[in-house]
Design goal:
The protein is 21% helix and 34% strand. It is α+β, with helices and mostly antiparallel strands and 452 residues long. It has 2 domains: 3-282, 2-Layer Sandwich (Ribosomal Protein S5, domain 2), CATH 3.30.230; 315-451, Hotdog Thioesterase (Thiol Ester Dehydrase, Chain A), CATH 3.10.129. The two termini are 27 Å apart.
């Protein structure tokens, strides 16, 4: 599983905002794992922050605006596209105004900032959004769809309402293709749009230094076009930025026809719904609570008081650590445990409810339940640590999973877990399941700890 990334040294750029016309100083800073991309208004009291999330999108007229209370940030899409294009998961963007500097209308200057700063790998793994079913939205003349795909690919057709300058481009997004094929594409607009934009208080900082103007069949620019399909490539740049508001790296193929910021953000909202619908497939430790109860004080000592001296731990004590109950408790007994290892037993009975359908006449324990047993064992080991008392573990991902032999009624499943990472919010363990001396399954499980 790829690791998360942040930037290296702080780096600053000064310029003007496209729509506000205000002078602004912007600094990129590194951020902690799992904190995402955050915008910090250093010109306001308390230096308030807005996390880059589609939940904070308040306006999509000619750009993407984030709002939180009375705090607003305009035209964030080019900055977000740069972080997304370089696969940077966590960063802080400090600004002393309500809009980043537009630079030359592309993301080229922001790429230079990232390359000057450098990138830093972080211990925590990325948590990608893997598209499993096609999703499609229509917003005005915009049609956006996303399909299952092993990487992140965007195919886009753009044109105005009169069909002028119709262009198509398709790209598999990587840090290399982002910088080479997309980052230099400049923002553009049609001449007849200028009056509307100016009447609405926009493009106060716009000029041929940071935008391309199309008038009839003539392209007005202070330099030759940087790509033959520069307009559609900039549309893809905007998609890369707006879809980063999902908060996860995306694995899918986006097919866009006449995209807009409004349509891009609508697709981002649909993708967040996609995450919620599929969360049950990954949250194997415990589902989120249906209602929010008053937050209990963190216990000063564990209620279960399980020693690390090899004492056998029975089911009654296990249920004081884990929230699982019949028929989803996959650990019957802990027979050995120290700071980094645990060995558990699961007695596989013919009375297990899943044997009715898996499979009639040929009962076999599902492989995913063996994986669940590994996850629960890792949960016991982690939640028994003093710093984790009173918390709940949510399953994040599994990797290098292999099922080698069937597990049948009457077998005793031995589950061994070696804790690879158990500090902080994210835990990681290597699991092996055996029947006798035979390895029947193995894998690596990752999970996140949260307050109960």
């Amino acid at each position: 599983m790829p690791q998360q990334q942040t930037i290296g040294d702080p780096v600053t750029y000064d310029g003007v905002g496209l729509h506000s016309g205000q002078k602004v100083s912007m600094t990129f800073r590194s951020a902690e794992p799992n904190s995402g991309i955050r915008f910090r208004r250093v010109d306001l009291e308390g230096k308030p922050e807005i996390i880059a999330s589609v939940d904070h999108v308040s306006n999509t007229t000619r750009s993407t605006t984030l709002s939180k209370g009375k705090i607003k940030l305009h035209t964030v899409e080019h900055i977000l596209a740069t972080f997304n294009g370089f696969e940077i998961d966590n960063a802080i963007v400090e600004l002393n105004a309500n809009e980043p500097p537009i630079a030359d209308g592309s993301a080229r200057e922001y790429c230079r900032m990232i390359k000057a700063s450098g990138t830093t790998l972080q211990a925590e793994a990325k948590d990608p959004l893997i598209v499993t079913d096609p999703i499609s939205i229509t917003s005005g003349e915009s049609i956006l769809s996303i399909f299952p795909h092993d990487g992140f690919k965007i195919s886009c057709t753009s044109s105005d309402d009169k069909g002028r300058f119709t262009q198509f481009y398709s790209v598999e997004l990587t840090p290399e293709t982002w910088e080479r094929e997309l980052s230099n594409a400049r923002t553009f607009c049609f001449f007849e749009e200028l009056e509307f934009l100016m009447k609405n208080g926009l493009i106060k900082g716009g000029s041929l230094e940071n935008a391309v103007i199309i008038r009839d069949d003539v392209v007005l620019t202070n330099e030759p076009l940087r790509y033959q399909e520069e307009f559609v490539r900039h549309k893809i740049l905007d998609i890369v930025g707006d879809l980063s508001l999902v908060g996860h790296p995306i694995k899918g193929h986006v097919v866009a026809v006449k995209p807009s910021h409004q349509a891009n953000c609508e697709l981002a909202r649909e993708l967040t719904t996609h995450i919620k619908k599929n969360s049950a497939r990954t949250q194997t430790f415990s589902p989120p609570p249906e209602t929010k109860a008053p937050k209990a004080k963190k216990p000063s000592a564990p209620a279960h008081e399980i020693p690390m001296d090899g004492t056998i731990i029975d089911t009654e004590k296990i249920m004081k650590i884990l929230p699982h109950r019949y028929p989803f408790l996959m650990i019957d007994r802990v027979i050995k445990m120290d700071e980094t290892h645990i060995t558990c037993l699961k007695n596989v009975s013919i009375n297990e409810p899943y044997f009715q359908g898996h499979f009639p006449g040929h009962p076999i324990m599902p492989g995913v339940l063996q994986l669940e047993a590994m996850a629960q064992a890792a949960g016991i080991l982690t939640l028994n640590k003093a710093e984790n008392w009173g918390k709940i573990a949510y399953f994040l991902s599994a990797e290098s999973v292999k099922w080698r032999k069937p597990v049948k009624p009457g077998d005793v499943l031995t589950v061994d877990i070696e804790l690879l990472k158990g500090r902080g919010k994210v835990g990681k363990g290597k699991g092996v399941c055996r029947v006798g001396t035979d390895v029947v399954s193995e894998g690596i499980v990752m999970f996140m700890l949260t307050d109960a």
